[in-house]
Sequence to fold (383 residues):
Amino acid sequence: MNPPIPRTALQLRSLIRRSGELEISLADVEVPQPAADEVLIRVEATPINPSDLGLLFGAADMNTAKASGSAERPVITAQVPEKAMKAMAGRLDESMPVGNEGAGVVVKAGSAANAQALLGKKVSMLGGAMYAQYRCVKAEQCLQLPDDATPAEGASSFVNPLTALGMVDTMRREGHSALVHTAAASNLGQMLNRICLKDGIALVNIVRKQEQANLLKAQGAKFICNTESPEFMAELTEALAATGATIAFDAIGGGKLAGQILTCMEAALARKAKEYSRYGTSTHKQVYLYGMLDTAPTEIVRNFGFSWGMGGWLLFIFLGKIGPAAAQKMRERVAAELKTTFASNYSHEVSLAGALQMQAIAVYGTRATGAKFLINPNKGIAA
Fold:
């Protein structure tokens, strides 16, 4: 039985002042009344994704972070380097809610039939501002969870699953037959591996540690390349030749890796070329940058001919392009395979206040594989 709905509830907010200081704190906000087509959800699980950290921390140097406030109401401050302030211009002095997705129980519903149908149900939702005890969204933004699923199991039903499915869909729409993924041992990477195994798609997984390679191998991955290997470029070329992969999705962003992938794609394709061309092979090679685990500049050495592309890929832009019908089919697949293909693993569960402890920030702020946090905004409050 759910507790009475309070008048106000906690919400985590991020503020960057014009003075160059980041402040992350908990605010009391009014619990909204749902409109006819909306539902009010008691949030019980919301993940800290890499995409959330960009809004949470902004361009602040978290090495300068300091804690103040109380255990129940911690406040984290940090300095934003002067050279990074220009990129923060659009959010200065605006307190912003954080959290892309989450899951919980619908405790109040508007009068519309689709809203009333969700009353008392466990749902996952996408819409921002999820690091809060209560969240009001349109009923159409919700995905009803299976009866035997917990909010924790449904908390990551959107960003990672739809990103992984979106990568496969983009591959097909652009005429490729196999793909490459970096940071491949992440929750998203493991999900993509399961999709490709289930759908019979060749996938080249790029990792940076042997234990990550071992993890993926145990899950059935066939092609795994470790950037720490002294033979990385040769091993990647062999994997690309074996799979025919000509599209890659890179979560790293900075450094040389994206360019190295294009170089190896060209080398793999050149093996099959019947005659030499000073312009390189004619097959198009594509790398999409979808993350910024490395914020350094992207470096490329143009030794892969002229038939190539490098650009950005963002889930929300992709969903806008494919339209609601195609997006709904993806969501239905996620719901059907929530505990198998699209299962997520978390290393820690914390409250809103717990997410603002320095020791927690030191862990999830690294964006390391195997260190994924789940926030339960109502943790410790009787249900």
